[in-house]
Design brief:
single chain; mainly beta; five-stranded antiparallel sheet; four-stranded antiparallel sheet; 4 helices; 29 strands; 9% helix; N2O_reductase_N; WD40/YVTN_repeat-like_dom_sf; Serine/threonine protein kinase; Host-pathogen_enzymatic-act
């Protein structure tokens, strides 16, 4: 759905920047919990080793969330055949009535479409299932909320409204009991109980909170805020109007910062003073000693020593659009998607603006490019076995499974309009729907 209201880009930018709804404090929550066709182009050579936690009575699957039409395609975790589809916005009519009756919500709704959604509403950003396959937790940017959907009935069980006007990336705790969700204009990350939607905790952060990653033991969250990516001020001193861009490590017992910093100074110390400090998707080694950060506008990634707090290496990957002004990069994303393969040997990287996936050797940073598979790869995550990575081709509405060691596509599946996040999870045993 494209814009239908005569709102100026400047006015909408002010709204998204937080002049109408941003909360700088970590005080009381404004949110509330309310009760409430597949094309397989290549056959997999062998069944993958699926080890994602699944309880008895549930089947392992892969969820692919499509941002622009609000559907979640469900793909069998072993055969990679699509078995069903979940409507991520079953309450759309009710939400739209609320929006049309509230001028601020209406301005925000259209502002999100114009400035972030490339002219489209953003209905599904991220999703995780409960281990028993009963609920699917979904963040919905244009509706500024997180909902739990009963997978069997497609009914909404609970709804939580985030601070500000837009919800974004989530993370599921290792024990499967809570999700961390970024509130883009609220400058806060909410921690929600997956069963009730109750806010268990929250922590403050910078402008446009984005990626959240739980540590393996669940005792920490690694978090980055990316600043105002919807502004056109991407050069020179004007970059400063993008707001506060910080990386932090948060203790999940006290919800206090273990460390928090703007990476600008560390980039300068490493000889890269002109790089953006906006950390996008990230990956890390199994021991969480080394992190690999994608940065706004950069075709590649940086290696960060988390123990010694310094940048150790920089990987440069090909820029296939050298004549494209960076102001035209989608939400400042030269690259948007990175994941570490099993054994910490190779990284799978989305070359978003260049339409490729790179398989990068972690020791040498030598790489192989996979090109011609699709357009605008916008997310990458590895499977639980570490053998494969999942890639969303947001420009051609497909997802690929890529074997990391062989650097080759295993299978490709047609999905919804503008796929983004891909997550492994589970559905009830025997569940399927038409699609």
């Amino acid at each position: 759905m494209r814009l239908t209201a005569p709102l100026t880009p400047l006015f909408m930018a002010l709204i998204l920047a937080g002049c109408m709804g941003e909360n700088d404090s970590a005080g009381e929550s404004n949110g509330s919990a309310e009760p409430q066709s597949s094309t397989v182009q290549t056959e997999p050579e062998s069944e993958p080793s699926v080890t994602v936690p699944v309880e008895d009575g549930a089947n392992p699957v892969v969820f692919v969330g499509s941002n622009w039409d609000g559907v979640i395609d469900v793909i069998d975790g072993e055969s990679y055949v699509k078995i069903g589809r979940i409507n991520g916005i079953p309450d759309k009519d009710e939400r739209m009535r609320e929006i049309w009756l509230n001028p601020i919500k209406l301005a925000a709704f259209h502002g999100i479409a114009l400035l972030i959604g490339e002219g489209h509403n953003q209905y599904v950003d991220d999703m995780y299932s409960t281990r028993n396959g009963e609920l699917l937790i979904v963040s919905r940017p244009s509706f500024a909320d997180v909902v739990a959907i009963d997978i069997a009935s497609n009914d909404i069980v609970w709804r939580f409204e985030v601070d500000g006007i837009r919800s974004d990336h989530m993370a599921l705790s290792p024990d499967g009991t809570e999700v961390a969700v970024s509130a883009s204009t609220g400058k806060v990350v909410h921690i929600l109980d997956v069963w009730t939607g109750e806010e268990k905790a929250r922590f403050p952060t910078g402008n446009s909170p984005h990626e959240n990653v739980y540590s393996k033991d669940g005792k920490k969250i690694y978090h980055a805020s990316i600043g105002h990516v919807f502004t056109a001020a991407d050069r020179g001193a004007l970059k400063n109007i993008k707001g506060e861009r910080i990386f932090k490590v948060v203790d999940t017992e006290t919800w206090e910062d273990i460390k928090s910093f703007d990476i600008s100074e560390k980039l300068a110390d490493a000889g890269y003073p002109d790089m953006s400090p906006a950390i996008r998707p990230m990956a890390h080694t199994e021991d969480e000693k080394f992190f690999y950060f994608q940065l706004s506008f950069f075709h590649g990634f940086v290696e960060y020593d988390m123990e010694n707090d310094k940048i150790t290496r920089v990987a440069h990957l090909p820029n296939r659009v050298p004549n494209l002004p960076v102001e035209l990069y989608v939400n400042d994303s030269a690259h948007h998607g990175i994941s570490m393969g099993g054994g910490d040997e190779k990284l799978c990287v989305a070359g978003t603006m260049s339409d490729y996936v790179a398989i990068v050797d972690r020791e040498t940073f030598e790489y192989e490019l996979l090109e011609g598979l699709g357009e605008k790869p916008y997310w990458i995550t590895r499977d639980a076995s570490g053998e494969n990575c999942f890639v969303s081709w947001s420009g051609t509405d497909q997802m690929s499974v890529i074997n990391i060691e062989r650097a080759e596509e295993v299978v490709r599946v047609d999905v919804g309009d503008h796929p983004q996040r891909i997550r492994e999870g589970s559905v009830p045993d025997g569940w399927t729907t038409p699609f």
